[in-house]
Write a structure and sequence with these properties.
CATH topology: TIM Barrel
Number of strands: 12
Order of helices and strands: EHHHEHEHEHEHEEEHEEEHE
Number of domains: 1
CATH architecture: Alpha-Beta Barrel
Number of helices: 9
Strand content: 15-25%
């Protein structure tokens, strides 16, 4: 397989009348089967999953093209080899392309990837959030395609900062990473919606880009706050505790009694996410309709 172009200089956007690619991300491959293939089924799924009727109705107009399985944030949420094989089969049955989400590397992650990556068909994407993972994929699995994940494509994303403290531009600047992207052969990048989003935000994307909606990753760590609440002693709020995947069932709304935040923020395991404002989603929807965004990534499991 010919290695993909590392950094695309020509206009990567699709024609304005072409629908965008739509990737559904999930930890559990069974989530894909609950969606359904027709528009009414998709609408019901997005209503139940996202809780935003206007956005759900708009989103239901696009048929999924990709299935993202795994986790960008936690090593404990990588699929087993059996789960990944089932996900590949589900995606094939539904005529979807599959991508593997991968977190920041640890010895455990690297051992898991050595078993998981051979399960992916040639040409599948691996979303790397660690330079070591990207190098490992490039060296040992060159038939797979690399995407730079949201953790690599960093930007100012904490909506709890006052608007007066925000710089004029909070969007991702790929220029400092351009040589590394080219060296590792990234075929696309994944970004959150910037805090300072406006009508021009998505007009100059330098390469094929996946935009995550309707939640942005604010921050992540290794300590699982949700999983630690029931513990006592030195294991509480410590890394390395046994994972029971509490984050798949429990989330916590984060509020500040002395502040009136515009964005809703949530604790999911070891990660804080924020929900985009209606205005921000409006800019995204407009950019999609103008052909400036060629792939959306939406969680297929409720938060």
């Amino acid at each position: 397989m010919t290695e993909p172009t590392a950094f695309i200089s020509e206009d990567p956007m699709v024609a304005s009348h072409s629908p965008p690619e739509l990737a559904v991300s999930a930890v559990n491959p069974a989530s894909l089967l609950r969606m359904g293939e027709d528009k009414p089924s998709r609408l019901a799924h997005w209503l139940a999953t996202l809780g935003d009727p206007d956005f759900a109705r708009w989103l239901a107009g696009f048929a999924p093209t990709h299935f993202y399985v795994g986790s960008e944030f936690c090593e404990h949420l990588l699929p087993s080899t059996n789960m990944l094989k089932k996900a590949v089969d589900h995606a094939r049955d539904l005529n979807l392309r599959i991508a593997l989400l991968t977190p920041i590397a640890s010895p455990q992650v690297m051992r898991a990837l050595a078993d998981l990556l051979p399960c992916l068909p040639e040409g599948c994407e691996v979303v790397a959030n660690d330079w070591g993972v990207a190098h490992f994929v490039k060296e040992h699995f060159p038939a797979l395609r690399l995407a730079a994940g949201r953790i690599l494509c960093r930007m100012l994303k904490d909506p709890r900062l006052g608007q007066s403290n925000l710089p004029a531009q909070c969007d991702f600047d790929p220029a400092p990473l351009r040589p590394m992207f080219a060296r590792l052969g990234f075929c696309r990048m994944e970004i959150d919606v910037p805090l300072s989003v406006n009508s021009d935000t998505f007009s100059t994307l330098p390469m094929h880009t996946s935009v995550h909606v309707p939640f942005s990753c604010v921050a992540k760590g290794r300590m699982c706050r949700i999983g630690s609440l029931a513990l006592q002693g030195p294991e509480r709020f410590a890394v390395g505790r046994k994972c029971r995947k509490e984050c798949l069932k429990i989330s916590a709304r984060l509020e500040r009694p002395t502040a009136s935040d515009t964005f809703s923020a949530y604790q999911l395991g070891n990660t804080i996410v924020s929900r985009h404002s209606r205005e921000a989603l409006g800019f995204v929807m407009s950019a999609v309709e103008q052909g400036r965004i060629n792939r959306l990534v939406v969680p297929g499991e409720a938060i």
